[in-house]
Amino acid sequence: MISASQRLWRTSPLTYLALVLAALLSIYPFYYMLVIGSRSLDNINDVPPPLTPGGAFGDNFGRVLDNDAANFLTGMMNSIIVSSVVTVSVVLTGSLAGFAFAKLKFRGSNALLLAIIVTMMIPTQMGLIPLWGMMQDLGWYDTLYAVTVPFLVTAFGVFMMRQYASQAISDELIEAGRVDGASTFRIYWSIVLPALRPAAGVLGLLTFMETWNSFLWPYAILTPENPTLQVSLSFLSYAYYTDYSQVFAATAIGTIPLVIVFLVFGRQIIGGIMEGAVKS
Amino acid sequence: MSLSATTARPSPAAPPSPDVSRRRRRGRLLNRLDVKYSPYLYIAPFFLIFGIFGLYPMLRTAWMSLHDWDMIGEHTFIGFDNYTRLFSDEYFWNALVNTFGIFALSTIPQLLLALFLANLLNRSLLRAKTFFRMAIFMPNVVSVAAVAIVFGMLFQREFGLFNWLLSFVGVDPVDWDGHRWSSWTAISSMVNWRWTGYNTLILLAGMQAIPKDLYEAAEIDGASPWRQFWQITLPMLKPTFIFVVILSTIGGMQLFTEPLLFGNGNIIGGNQREFQTLAMYMYEMGIVNLNTAGYGAAIAWAIFMIIIVVSLFNFLLVRRSAK
């Protein structure tokens, strides 16, 4: 006997057909990166277009490494450095401030939190032009400082950590720490930060992906001599738009790290995004 | 600190030595300072860095927009001239039309598709739920630059996959980057591919927050699934839908990377500016041409105003239509 709600939520073969189709469309471009990235150049112009991978990936990627117009390896290293530093900083500053807003009493806390929420609505491109000028004045043009320092804190990080801290950490726990004579920072480090770990993990993953993928600002302030990975990819694709196999091999290598991160932590990332949506 | 406090505690019999009591008093003072000022110290990094690299540039954008501002030369105050110039600048209107065209072609099909997929994923008896969710979300993991490179190839004129597929239905090869509509379609398809899954998950989260007994009651009243979707799901989903629409608006009005890379880095977006967006025009005026930075700043503020107006309009539209 099927209950009413079960009948209501039943799934038909058509449901699966539509979902499988959507999944295939979502995954196909990844596959396509590997197909073109592993074909030798004379295959690319074939009609019909190649649909299965070839054996020239190593050869194609070798050409990427030899190519000094885009400095792919420098870009890869730069992206690893910048994304890691930004991620660690956003998680630490976000959890510190989130803890303060959720659990510590101080004058003006409500107004300051509201200010942080308002800043989340501001389009990121608003300050682009003067920021570019500031970087010239600071002597940071074409340096990693320019693509790191402005992003060491995010309003989203503070807000997300505050939301999580206010429900995941009981006031008694913090009181107990105080009675034992622990300083506020000691409470943060030994009680709060461990308790925030699940949310901090999701924030870290989201921040890493966003920094790894960011384009407009690094493109504006870096040159092909000292690029991030995305900037390097764009210059490679401008200069070698006829050599698709080389560009695609580079694109695949630049995408794989994130795909691995996603395959390992996808469940947490998706959970974090869906929870965030309901709360806001 | 806590350790030294306990070990230094004197036995009640002996009176505390002056040295120990001084240390305790200093401990109490430090403790008071700690409780009072630590919170400010903890939120300081955000406000410091945001103030310098977020708020200040934004205000400076406003200031620059009132000047004839050369990034490496003279600044002359000209009041609102940059803004009045916008109204008669055909390139600005062109970019505005392109931005809205691409926005419509990417947002409307995308949200409908996301709504459809979320509704499918919302069935409690569905198997392989996590697999479908992850697969559909995968595109959002890829950088915009990579998406643009891959789709640039798919839309290639001579040997791209789309023209090859179109040849089966007898369509001559389309010069995707040579016309307005075709380039808008190609660019929108990149946006749609990358963001449909994300919006599906957000809408799914909203659907799952709807109490199940509403559907059971409707079922008992004999309402068809289609009717339940219209009468329960859509109205209850309104707040989530508004959230998604506003997010898409903020993203859509700032579209930059897809059209830039689709045109091989050409900042004017096609030979005849067929797909130059507002953000690209701002970049052209503010950063490519350093001597018109003031005008670029005015474009930045115009984009901001447009985002506010369009968000409000969409907000009212969604709120009314779902009544």
Automatic annotation (TrEMBL), chain A:
All residue ranges annotated as the ABC transmembrane type-1 domain in the record: 76-265
Membrane-spanning intervals of the chain: 12-31, 80-102, 111-132, 144-161, 187-209, 244-265
Family membership: Belongs to the binding-protein-dependent transport system permease family.
Pfam families membership: BPD_transp_1 (PF00528)
Name of the featured protein: Carbohydrate ABC transporter permease
CDD domains per UniProt: TM_PBP2 (cd06261)
Gene3D superfamilies the record matches: MetI-like
PROSITE patterns: ABC_TM1
SUPFAM superfamilies: MetI-like
Highest taxon of the lineage: Bacteria
Keywords in alphabetical order: Cell membrane, Membrane, Transmembrane, Transmembrane helix, Transport
Intracellular or extracellular location(s): Cell membrane
Topology of this chain in the membrane: Multi-pass membrane protein
Automatic annotation (TrEMBL), chain B:
Keyword match Transmembrane helix: yes
Family (UniProt): Belongs to the binding-protein-dependent transport system permease family.
PROSITE patterns reported in the protein's UniProt record: ABC_TM1 (PS50928)
Record keywords: Cell membrane, Membrane, Transmembrane, Transmembrane helix, Transport
Biased composition (Low complexity): 1-11
Name under which the protein is recorded: Sugar ABC transporter permease
Subcellular location: Cell membrane
Residues in ABC transmembrane type-1 domain copies: 96-316
PANTHER family: ABC TRANSPORTER PERMEASE PROTEIN (PTHR30193), INNER MEMBRANE ABC TRANSPORTER PERMEASE PROTEIN YCJO (PTHR30193:SF37)
Primary localisation category: membrane
Membrane-spanning residues: 40-59, 91-118, 130-155, 195-215, 236-256, 298-318
Membrane topology: Multi-pass membrane protein
A Pfam short name: BPD_transp_1
Domain of life: Bacteria
Keyword Transmembrane on entry: yes
